[in-house]
Amino acid sequence: VPNIVKDLPDFTGNPRDLSTWILDVEDCLELFSTPTNWSEIKEVLRLYYADKRDLMTLDNQLKSMSRKQHESIETYYSRVREMITLISSAISTDETWKGHEPALIKLYNMMALDTFIRGLGEPLYMFCKNYNSLAAAYHYCVEFLNLNARSAPFKNHVPTPTPAPRGNIPAPLPRAVMNTRAVPPRYHSQGDTSLNPLNKPFIPKPPSNTPNVFAPNRAFYPKQPKPEPMEVDRSIQSRMINYGHRPNLKHPRPASDSFPANKPPEKRMAHHLEGMSEEEYNNYLEEYDVQEYVKPELPIEPDLEPETTQEQEPNESSNLHFLETTPEWVSKW
């Protein structure tokens, strides 16, 4: 057996290796130039071992591919690489695309690169935008992950819980939070209260002669001297203190027998006023020509009640007649 035949890899039936294995076998046959039925063998291999999905189905699956949750970049890259290999094998083994294989394979390589970059997320998504091949983008991702792994011990990303404020007892967590793996809420630090400008005393600033843009400059006049008190003649001042108008409530005077504290106020009597006699009163009226008030006499109204006579005296018969003629509501009243 020639050495070139020994170097041929064994075909295990994997659809991804079918096109590569066929090309290697064709190279061996061209070197030996032996007429064989290789074309029929290729058709049988494609019929039984090629991927059953057509190019349109593989194209749709490549566009809808995304990175799974908690999936590593290595696994995600392997899935994208496997999909682009299947597409390349389908293009090279299908006679429909004969002559257009390089253009189609280049197009699908760019689509695979776009799919891989979309699944990276931040910040690798921004860094890998300028790469032109899938292998180069994956190489940069590996270098970035290695750099983060080496610098991880020097970074402290573990948040430390802040102490709870004084006098504030945290409420128990609900059962929905206690039974899950959710992170419990942490207390927010209140900060240094000494930095609050409301807690600082107000200190007025001294006036300055710097120009003010929002108000015109004002002239600062010199400080006025303190006024001197006037001379007062002490001989005309009273030495008596009026405690009645300015009582000292802190030190009240004790009540004496002559001035009891609970003594009710006395009413003033007019016995000290002097009156005038009738003769003096008449002289006063004549001197000042004062007319004495005379109460006007009201006219006497005539008596409207009719005089009772013997003929008009009421009797029992008239009263009975009146009761018979009175309405019902008057009798009830």
Structural features, described:
The protein is mostly helical. Among the domains are: 1-50, no CATH class; 53-150, no CATH class. Helices cover 39% and strands 0% of the residues. The chain is built from twelve helices and no strands. It has helices spanning 3-6, 18-32, 38-49, 55-63, 73-93, 101-118, 124-127, 134-151, 175-178, 278-287, 316-325, 328-332. Helix 5 runs antiparallel to helix 6 (101-118) and helix 5 runs antiparallel to helix 8.
End-to-end Cα distance: 149 Å
Weakly predicted, low-confidence segments: 317-323
Mean pLDDT equals 70
Count of alpha/pi helices = 12
Number of strands: 0
Radius of gyration: 62 Å
Question: What general outline do the C-alpha atoms trace?
Answer: elongated
Amount of beta strand? under 5%
Indicate the percent of residues in helices: 25-40%
Assembly type of the shown chains? single chain
Biggest beta sheet summary: none
The structural class is: mainly alpha
What's the short version?
This is Putative retrovirus-related gag polyprotein from transposon hms-beagle. The N and C termini lie far apart (149 Å). Helix content is 39%, strand content 0%.
